[in-house]
Each structure stands twice: as C-alpha cells, then as structure tokens.
Amino acid sequence: MDKYHENIRSIRKRLALTQEAISDMMGVQRSTYGRFERGETHILTANTRRFLRATGKTVEDIVDLNGDERGGFLREASVEDRVLELSEEIKNLRAIVEMLASRIEKLSKK
Known about the structure:
- 73% of the residues lie in helices and 0% in strands.
- By secondary structure, it is an all-alpha fold.
- The chain has a domain at 3-77: 434 Repressor (Amino-terminal Domain).
- The longest helix has 30 residues, at 79-108.
C-alpha cells in the first residue's frame, strides 16, 4: 500500500469510522471503498472527491503534493476508470429500482 492509501485509511480510523460507514457517506458500496482504501483499484478522482467531501478533509491531508504521489493523484481518470465507476453507479441504481419495485408490489397487494 502506498502513502496515499495509508493516509486515507489513517483518516478513516482517526474519525472512528468503519469502512461501511464511510462508504455510505461516499455513496459507494463497501467493497468499492475497501478496494479504494487498499489501493487495489486505480486512483479514481471521483472516489477521491467523494472521500474528501465525506470526511471534510483536503487534498493536502492525504497527498504530499511535493512528493511522488502528485502524479498518481492528479492524473485524469482514464476511460477505463470512468467505465468502472459508471458500472458501479449502475449497480447501485439497479438495487434501488429493485427495492422500490418490491415496495410498490407489496403496496399494490394491500
């Protein structure tokens, strides 16, 4: 794990948040957050922005802008990164639609 991801984990732990809690705050699945925190996925700028919004932290809190992390953090998300992120969003939306459809079906039977 690189320094960037160590800092993300450290911030979450200092805030006494579980991965599940922070993923809910970010609007992503817990497994997505776990991979993000462990550095198992590309650094997605959207997930980084979500993390910063959810924790109230700044870029400077997680990245040494004078060090080697600058290039990895500030790079534009690739098309592949964006497709992966959109796929995750679609999964989340499908789950919401299925839950709402189930509730509507239950209500219509009453």
